[in-house]
Specification:
- The chain is an all-alpha fold.
- It has two domains: 34 residues, no CATH class; 60 residues, no CATH class.
- The N and C termini lie far apart (47 Å).
Length: 95
């Protein structure tokens, strides 16, 4: 919604789409490609830093966003982060 309202072109902003083999590009060329958050925690941090568009029209309040981020972090992110991944079990314990 934010990008639409601000008329942000995703290609000009560095998000693509990119119709090319980026692995053939130089490091300098690839450095201009912006990526999306790669984890739940990264997405939550991005939301904490930029959520003004959600406050427009009073659809969501600052308090609601903060509580939702806290809930997701405490009930999902930390719960997963604090437990071993099944691959770790097979890698280290040969189960």
């Amino acid at each position: 919604m934010d990008g639409i309202q601000k008329h942000i072109d995703p290609t000009e902003a560095g998000f693509g789409p990119i119709d090319a083999n980026i692995f053939a590009w130089s490091e300098e060329q690839r450095a201009h490609i912006k990526s999306l958050p790669d984890s739940l925690n990264s997405a939550l941090i991005a939301l904490e830093q930029d959520h003004e568009f959600l406050l427009a029209g009073e659809v969501f309040s600052e308090l609601m966003i903060r509580q939702w981020v806290d809930f997701k972090r405490n009930e999902e992110y930390y719960q997963v982060r604090n437990r071993p991944h099944p691959y770790e079990m097979s890698l280290y314990f040969d189960v």
